[in-house]
Design a protein that fits this description.
2 strands; 66% helix
Length: 118
């Protein structure tokens, strides 16, 4: 049986994030008689999905909407397409930032150092 920390690390989350998702009703995790969480394939799949949704930038509210509309495929598609567009926009902005940094690096490599004079 895997611990909550092992499950969290496997899905790029913290144990506290899993506990929080559980407290917010995003996931139900069975427990044994002494209170340890028992992660079955269904709970692991839900954790994996929540991890990707979090990485895609969905808010807690959006994740709750997603979970509460799992049977409504049209709603899911709409929510995921909007999230995908936000993520693409972020990637575009990050690529522009990388281009700027590359430009500045090359500029400073190829130009003499300027010293500050007082």
């Amino acid at each position: 049986m895997k611990s909550i920390s092992e499950i969290a690390a496997q899905h790029h989350l913290t144990a506290s994030a899993i506990r929080y998702y559980e407290s917010e009703g995003l996931i139900t995790i069975q427990r044994n008689r002494i209170g340890n969480r028992l992660f079955d394939s269904k709970s692991e799949e839900r954790i994996r999905a929540l991890s990707y949704l979090h990485q895609a930038g969905l808010s807690l509210s959006e994740m709750k909407d997603y979970i509460s509309h799992l049977a409504d495929h049209d709603y899911e598609v709409e929510l995921l397409q909007a999230s995908r567009q936000r993520l693409e926009n972020k990637i575009t902005q990050l690529n522009r930032t990388l281009q700027f940094l590359d430009y500045k690096i090359e500029y400073h490599k190829n130009n003499p150092k300027i010293t500050n004079s007082k």
